[in-house]
Amino acid sequence: MKRIITLIICVFSFFFSSSQETESLDLEFENARLDEVFSLIEENSDYKFFFLKDWITDTRITKSFQDVPLEDILSEILEETVLNYYILDDRIIITENNIVHKDFSFQTEEKEIAEQTPERVNEENIPYFLDENDKAGAITTHKIGKESDSRGNEYYTLTGRVLNNKDQSPLSNVAILVEGENKGTQTDIDGNYSLRLKAGPHILIARTLGNDIVRKRAVIYNDGTLDFSLSESLEQLSEVIIDSKSDRNVKEAFTGVSVIDVQRIKTMPLVLGERDLLKAATTLPGISKAGEGALGFNIRGGREDQNLILLDDGVIYNPNHFFGIFSAINPFTTGSVEIYKGNIPAKYGGRLSSVFDIRTKKGNTQQIAGEGSVGPVTGNLELEVPIVKDKSSLILGGRATYSDWILNTLDEEALNNSEASFYDAIANYSHQIDENNDYNITGYYSRDKFSITSDSLYAYNNMMFSGTFNHRFNNDLEGSINVSNSNYGFDIEYDSQFDNSFISSFEINESKLRIDLDHRLGRDHELNYGLATKLYNIQPGSVSPLGNESIVENNSLNREKGLESALFISDEFEISDKFLLNAGLRFSAFSALGPSTVNSYADDAPKSENSITGTEEFGNNEIVKTYSGLEYRFGARYSIFDDFSVKGGYNSTMQYIHTLSNNTLVSPTDIYKLSDTHIKPQRAQQFSLGFFKNFNDNMYELSVEGYYKLSDDIIDFETGAALFMNENIETEIIQGEGKSYGAEFLLRKNFGDLNGWLSYTYSRSLIKLDSEYPTQRVNNGEFFPSNFDKPHDVSVVMNYKLTQRFSFSANFIYQTGRPVTYPIGKYDFNNSQFVAYSDRNQYRIPDYYRLDLSFNAEGNHKIEKLAHSFWSISIYNVLGRNNPYSVFFVTDNGEVKAYQSSIFAMPIPTITYNFKF
């Protein structure tokens, strides 16, 4: 107490004294604490230090000074601390954070002084900021940075991390709000946040569903850090399945963004008890599938190949198992899923409709943890292993099906030769080098094998590697470098009783490099810019004999190569407190590379083998054809009220790679084709407008959004096109126009005993295939419905919590039947009978609807347990609706017969056991 009183007297006395020039000293410190440095200065000079020992950290100093003024010595040794100094005669007064001000104008009004020096705060006036809701110990005060003599900055950057108090794992999607100010932000996947705040005191609130609310007072002197540690709140376990990141839907400038909360989909009843991230996504507006069991997604009227699926920035070409019945993305190792279907950020490109940005969660750096499940056909296990405590962790995840074993135990002759199996594995290593550097490495592999008939075996696999290094240059500039490689391929083994057995295969490989920089320019601008490049390498198809007796000859199509590159920049510009603009540009270019043989075709005839007029040869890596274009990304938000905003956007995109399939639905044996001399890149532009409103402190969320999208050079095919192993594939392809439009409605209750959402989408997807040649003209060159045009789509997802441990969940899905082409008559020609079909996609299969129910039971919530368990008993398709997967027609003895195939035509009961430790 005596030293504190002395320090206060000395600080007060400077008003009546003046500082003097200091002497120069010869000093040398080696691995010395700061208080030891002070003592050494006192021994070598006439000065005396006044400070509190609590301010001294264990930081060690090694310095050497020769004839250096004392002020310069003090400035250098205190540069990396939050301490300041003031020299008064022979006394050196050390202060924490703030400085001792020399100049005061006592004629200035009190209000003006407060405005000019908002950072001038010390512990004696802190009680001024307490309010009636603050209790002892409820709010802690943290001084951030240290005050400077410079008056240049009014705003400073506060950064930090939000961690789980139990295991110190990072928490994403946490809202960091500034009390009494219209300001806030969200933590990213690593739990990091950043805020621009005025100098002076602020009360920060960290809140998220499932955790207690934490309030802290931050007194801002300069740039600095403030971390939060949140404890779990048992009252909010499993209340919300999908969350929109608090008020992000109202505050951000982007339209058409959906966020899946991975931790809260466990109560959602899904087929065969498999927790499925991508199936959960299809219950949100604007996201649908062509049919039950179909691969791929149709986003706002787009084709399945127009979606970019990213896992830790590495491309996954087929994120499905077993014809889309299961997702190939492990839910236990996934941290977040963000889906961009309106405004796509400028850093993403290469697809027209959407980006699925899937991120692996950060592992536990404190202790071994894990999660798993056992279902009727699959088992899943995830482990988190600390490698370096508080710095690095390894996540291992594996999932497999034992359906082969189940098929072999069934007494059904038709299934004796059947095969259906899959597995996937993922490994992720993350390492925090220091506060400015970290890196993340992910490896992924999946494989499927299935046999539909006794003579054919299908197999396909994904393989992906991704590595990202992140570096923070300073508080305003951060950057990352990502390298990735993705590989997808399939094999078909045909084991015939005759001599034509064969094995055929396809493979695509993609290598990518992306450099990404985030730069804050003052309080109003946040720039994101960088470059990306990727190299495609495709084996379009090969056939080889299967067995020694096969007469099939080896055949392999020429490989395809292409280089796609882009430069991008975007700026999020806060024009005012109400008006936020995000504007981006992306310049992309693509070059088809040799070796290649390019056909030339007659100008007055459609492309066919008969109209080839010559060929041109290109050598290895020689440029065959180049395309380029400027893509625009604009989004704007205007806040009518704090919880009500209107947003609009414009988005243009280009796509240089295409999926080739003449099946009604996408299949795992579809092939990929690069743009070249004859096949142009697909292009699209989308306009969107939406209204977003939250109620009752973000408990309820309401949004209505409309869009209109135009597309050019959309891929389609001539009737009866042969695609696989076709050397002249351009002769089968037609490129046309597309347009889609619609409105999306979402009403969501985020928490409470009853929670869930209602989504409704009205959408139309139309295509126009017109040409001067009749063989390339469809439906007289008029717009007609695409294969995935489904005007009405309704999803209701509800969860009701009976107690802390028991809950009921339900899904109801309704969709308009997709278009189909029906036979409408038959006719005789040359003594033969033929079937006459309607215009393409003139009719529709029956509408689709399904009801699912589940009962969920959690184990007791005792903290000291080996593992926490969770049981789910569900019934998929409770009504037993025989929803058609497809409708096809067969001519039998001159009679046309219609057949309908279904995936799940009866109720499917499931019981699944989940555990977490």
Any key phrases for this structure?
Maltoporin, Chain A, 22-stranded antiparallel beta barrel, single chain, mainly beta, 5-stranded mixed β-sheet, receptor, 6% helix, 57 strands, Phage tail protein beta-alpha-beta fold, membrane, cell outer membrane, disordered N terminus, 917 residues, Immunoglobulin-like
Overall description:
There is one protein chain. The chain is mainly beta and 917 residues long. The chain contains seven helices and 57 strands. Strand 50 and strand 51 form a beta hairpin. The longest helix is centred in the N-terminal third of the chain and has 12 residues. It is found in: Cell outer membrane. It holds the Pfam family CarbopepD_reg_2. GO terms for molecular function: siderophore uptake transmembrane transporter activity. Keywords: Cell outer membrane, Membrane, Receptor, Signal, TonB box, Transmembrane, Transmembrane beta strand, Transport.
Q: How many E-type strands?
A: 57
- What Rg do the Cα atoms give? 33 Å
**Largest beta-sheet details:** 22 strands, antiparallel, barrel
The quaternary organization reads as single chain
Poorly predicted runs: 1-19, 104-137, 234-244
Count of helices? 7
The number of domains is 3
Work out the helicity level: under 10%
| Share in β-strands | over 45%
